[in-house]
């Protein structure tokens, strides 16, 4: 059994981690020590996907299956070495100060605060423009099956989306959402305002919904999704965030939002993937989303053709 607390060192950082025997996933006996261990071991592949981006964290102080809360504001008593960034906000006159995780010790510090999920926007912090004119360097298409639909339907719709994207010179990289759906992450140039990215994603979703009305919806709400796959284009709103690649999810079991290949998606090999499976995949395959961390081409002006 892990000790209740201990001092750990990551490079020049030394910090105390506590309550290591706390059950974070009661169904599997997964403790806070296990969560910390996963994030420390996954740091090399996870950090490139979140470095330079503000973090919204989902914390489970009593483990999954109990109360959770989304946290944007950096918590009190942030250590001096941990990077933070204050971003203008329509609801907070002084802006919102976020945590920015750009080193392994930051992930451990966050996990010690019962953080399970890590979510980021599609833009980077060096973009100081107002929301509507921020310049995202990623486009995200979230395929979310409604009641009566599942992974088979998601795979079919993923290929329809992929074909549209490829026609516009864009490459989509799939990952599991860690829940029921699939995310397609597309590196883009980071030179176009968020409004243009949203318009492109919305037009693509609505075009496919019009072409395949029995299979696809671009409209939110559970009633609109029965037997269909929602193409959620709204993830590209600069005020919204998407779960990061290699982040744990707050499910009954420790499941991870995992990069996969298109051939795996076609074969229905979408997990769920746990920590050891993901770390094993990384050791064998490397980071399947490594190309997502570098800019891609610009979006075409005419969207959703």
From TrEMBL:
Gene3D superfamilies: DNA primase, PRIM domain. It holds the Pfam family LigD_Prim-Pol. Residues 31-289 form the DNA ligase D polymerase domain. CDD domains: LigD_Pol_like. PANTHER family: BIFUNCTIONAL NON-HOMOLOGOUS END JOINING PROTEIN LIGD. This is DNA polymerase LigD, polymerase domain protein. The lineage of its organism: Bacteria, Bacillati, Actinomycetota, Actinomycetes, Glycomycetales.
């Amino acid at each position: 059994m892990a000790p209740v607390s201990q001092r750990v060192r990551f490079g020049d950082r030394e910090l105390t981690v506590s309550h290591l025997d706390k059950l974070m996933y009661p169904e599997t006996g997964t403790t806070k020590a296990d969560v910390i261990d996963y994030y420390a071991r996954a740091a090399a592949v996870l950090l490139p996907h979140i470095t330079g981006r503000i973090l919204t964290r989902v914390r489970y102080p009593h483990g999954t299956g109990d109360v959770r809360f989304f946290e944007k504001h950096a918590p009190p008593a942030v250590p001096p070495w941990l990077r933070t960034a204050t971003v203008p906000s329509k609801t907070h006159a002084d802006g919102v100060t976020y945590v920015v995780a750009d080193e392994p010790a930051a992930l451990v510090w966050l996990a010690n605060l019962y953080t399970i999920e890590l979510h980021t926007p599609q833009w980077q912090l060096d973009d100081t423009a107002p929301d509507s004119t921020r310049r995202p360097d990623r486009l995200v298409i979230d395929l979310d099956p409604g009641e009566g639909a599942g992974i088979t339907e998601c795979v079919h719709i993923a290929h329809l989306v992929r074909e549209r994207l490829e026609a516009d010179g864009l490459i989509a990289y799939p990952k599991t959402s860690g829940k029921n759906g699939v995310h397609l992450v597309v590196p883009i140039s980071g030179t176009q305002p968020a409004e243009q990215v949203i318009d492109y994603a919305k037009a693509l979703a609505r075009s496919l919904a019009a072409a395949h009305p029995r299979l696809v919806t671009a409209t939110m709400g559970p009633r609109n999704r029965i037997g269909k796959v929602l193409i959620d284009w709204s993830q590209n709103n600069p005020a919204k965030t998407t779960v990061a690649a290699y982040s744990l999810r707050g499910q009954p079991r420790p499941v991870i939002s995992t990069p996969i290949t298109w051939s795996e998606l076609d074969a229905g090999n979408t997990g769920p993937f746990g920590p050891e499976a993901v770390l094993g995949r990384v050791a064998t395959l490397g980071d399947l989303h490594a190309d997502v961390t570098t800019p891609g081409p610009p979006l075409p002006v005419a969207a959703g053709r």
